[in-house]
Amino acid sequence: MELKRVVVTGLGAVTPLGNDVSATWSAMTAGKSGIDTITQFDHSACKTHFAGEVKNWDISSMLDRKEARKLDRYSQFAVYTAKQALEDSHLDLEAEDKDRIGVIWGSGMGGILTLEEELTAFAQGDGTPRFNPFYIPKAILNMGAGQISLRFGLRGPSFATASACASSACAIADAYNTIRLGKADIMVTGGSDADITWSGIGGFNSMHAISTRNDSPATASRPFSKSRDGFVLSEGGACLILEEYGHAVARGAHIYAEMSGAGLNSDAFHLTAPDPEGNGAAKVMKLAMEDGGVLPADVDYINAHGTSTPLGDIAEMKAILRVWGEDAYRLNISSTKSMTGHLVGASGAIEAMATVMSLHDGIVPPTINHEEDDCDENIDYRLNFTFNRAQKRNLRYALSNTFGFGGHNVSLLFKKHEA
């Protein structure tokens, strides 16, 4: 069976850096931070007082108040970014066969805000289980995909992926394979999360997973730096329109990049910690390149998972060195989480979007907040981590890495599109 080619023809985003792709990408390439003090709830009792919140965002431009109340914040991000991406793709949905357009959407936590609100109201009540009739439809993990499918009338394959921080990368990989196998012409894919709540912050604090650098929120996410002390919890979402190449060409679509491969595997090592030698991460990058029929020498850029955790950054660096050896020193490597923070299940989609834009524009976004090198035995600073400033480079192939609690690893391979 001959596999179909797959291209990216539309993008959408809402992030701590901006409420669309243009604003987010402009801030990324300028090396700006989207991290600040939490405004959504009283955080005074928490160990961490900051996060990557979406700012000055209003769903009323798309949904009226009554309709918006039926969607959890993570689902609002989903439909909002899907609308952006579909508009960006210039698809005429009424002229398309909607049975051939599907939705695969990832989320790490789903409707955690709705869950909190409903259980808090119950706990403060008289013990009678009075719940909002939209409680379950708002909270369940598949509703991001469901809402997109419903609102745009898309009747192709539709489901959700849940693999913690790797959720939206898994969604993109599944959407890619759905088109490659000829089961759809177009897939709306990506992910969203909205976990900046008292239980989200409190839960990650209890694991000692997130930074407590309350005196300097904007510099708290500092991947590959000595003083890194955990990731920064963020919210938002991103959407990619994947399309079969012949279909895109036939309608004269603008092609951002080609998706060329996907690797998925598991560390099978620890509940939350990575394999310290990066064995799973090394293998998953190899799988993505093998899937795309390319060699490590063909890849110029890696958008690293780069969470700013003491163990994770070292494991990923070891994985890169294991795969590329001495050739690793010509690569550009960067962590856009240094600017966006960690969007949990949405992180893979945000970083795939950034990787696609890097290929399209020939710009590698930086890893900001680097002030001090770690010990030489921990981090090899001969590698080009693209510290603090973006770098221009004509990229051929790029990988986007995403690793999740539970040992889930995904690496997505994208190729520069030559018109």
The neighbouring-strand order within the major sheet is 5-4-6-7-1-8-14-13-9-10
Helix run count: 13
Helix percentage? 25-40%
Order of helices and strands: EHEEHHEHHHEHEHEHEHEHEHHEEEE
Q: How much is the average pLDDT? A: 97
Major sheet: size, sense and barrel closure? 10 strands, mixed
Explain this structure.
- With 419 residues, the protein is of the alpha/beta class.
- The protein is built from 13 helices and 14 strands.
- Strand 9 (299-303), helix 11 and strand 10 (332-334) form a beta-alpha-beta unit.
- Helix 10 crosses helix 11 (312-324).
- The chain is globular, with a radius of gyration of 20 Å.
- The two termini are 26 Å apart.
- The model has no long low-confidence stretch (mean pLDDT 97).
List keywords for this structure.
single chain; 419 residues; ten-stranded mixed beta sheet; 13 helices
Short description:
The protein has 419 residues and is an alpha/beta fold.
Secondary-structure map with pairings?
Layout: E1 6-14, H1 21-29, E2 36-37, E3 50-51, H2 65-68, H3 73-89, E4 101-106, H4 112-123, H5 135-139, H6 143-152, E5 158-161, H7 167-180, E6 186-193, H8 198-206, E7 236-244, H9 245-250, E8 257-266, H10 279-292, E9 299-303, H11 312-324, E10 332-334, H12 337-340, H13 347-361, E11 363-364, E12 391-392, E13 397-404, E14 408-416
Helix pairs in contact: 3-6, 7-13, 10-11
